[in-house]
Design goal:
With 191 residues, this protein is mainly α. 64% of the residues lie in helices and 0% in strands.
Length: 191
């Protein structure tokens, strides 16, 4: 039969393998709370081996319940749209390329057990899909709406003003300039 201290060490190993902080696990296992003793306990060869064994068992159980891993798609090449790209779009980045990259990241992260990175990449793909499905761009609630009819009315009035300004003015068509008037007056005075 295992001694009390062996049972406490096994309980400590269980708690640490579950993710509990060693100091808390040390106290929960029945020892007097002591950070340095808890740290030393994690370094004992028998306890460290038990923690590693329990973690491996938990990891195997989680992986047994996982769906088949995501296939890693081939990387899409970036195809610049011009010789001297200045913007991200001109460099060839687009939604299709980003979705492909996120798929590759998710699959690679899942392969090495980095599930949070995989979930983040899949969330980014979801964001791309949701952005594409939106029919109206988001705007601030207090932002003014643009009324197309009002703009059309304004543009019609501007077009009328431009048209009127291009037409010759009948009241000034026969008018003479000031210098022409002076010349005519001088010519009349000479006669």
């Amino acid at each position: 039969m295992a001694s009390t201290s062996q049972l406490q060490r096994d309980m400590f190993a269980e708690y640490v393998a579950e993710g509990m902080h060693p100091t808390d696990a040390y106290e929960k296992a029945g020892f007097v709370r002591n950070r340095s003793s808890a740290s030393r306990m994690t370094k004992r060869p028998d306890v460290a081996a038990k923690i590693a064994e329990l973690r491996a068992e938990r990891r195997a159980a989680r992986q047994a319940n996982l769906p088949a891993p995501l296939p890693v798609p081939e990387a899409l090449p970036l195809v610049p749209t011009c010789d001297d790209p200045q913007t991200v779009a001109e460099m060839g980045f687009n939604k299709v390329w980003l979705a492909n990259a996120y798929q590759r990241i998710a699959a690679a992260a899942e392969d090495v057990g980095q599930f949070s990175a995989s979930i983040t990449a899949l969330g980014r793909i979801q964001n791309l899909v949701e952005a594409e499905q939106k029919t109206e761009p988001e705007r601030a609630p207090d932002a003014p709406r643009i009324d197309i009819n009002s703009i059309a009315d304004v543009l019609g009035k501007v077009a009328d003003i431009i048209e009127v300004s291009k037409a010759p003015d009948r009241s000034t068509a026969n008018a003479v300039t000031h210098s022409e008037q002076k010349a005519l007056t001088a010519a009349e005075n000479e006669t």
